[in-house]
Amino acid sequence: MSAAEKKAQQEKWFGAETIVAAERAVRRELKDPDSAQFKDVRANYTEVFGVVACGRVNAKNGFSGYTGFRRFVSSGKSVILEGRDNFADAWSGACS
After folding, report:
1. Domain tally for the chain?
2. For residues 36 and 23, is the Cβ–Cβ distance under 8 A?
3. Rounded Cα gap, residues 39 and 62, in angstroms
4. pLDDT by residue (tens digit) across 55-77?
5. What is the DSSP track for 27-74?
6. pLDDT tens-place string over residues 27-57
7. Which structural domain, as residue segments, surrounds residue 79?
């Protein structure tokens, strides 16, 4: 099986459940989880990270104002939101 075939297979088998789990995990990180708006969310497979969800989220902050869309990377168990120290490496390694 080629690398491209393996990538497609993994994304097909695990993509939808990874996205659902990732959105749950992202919500847990937010001040107002019910206000979360997701955009451009997709599953991506890499040899290093396995299947992860990459996308953007907008949510209300503590002052009830929306913060603007921020990118995220999530395995469904852990989340790295844009603005954290290791975000650039995670995004380029898992989502590019």
Report:
1. 1
2. yes
3. 21
4. 999 999 989 999 999 999 999 99
5. HHTSSSGGG-EEEEEEEEEETTTEEEEEEEEE-B-TTS-B---EEEEE
6. 999 999 999 999 999 999 988 889 999 999 9
7. 3-94
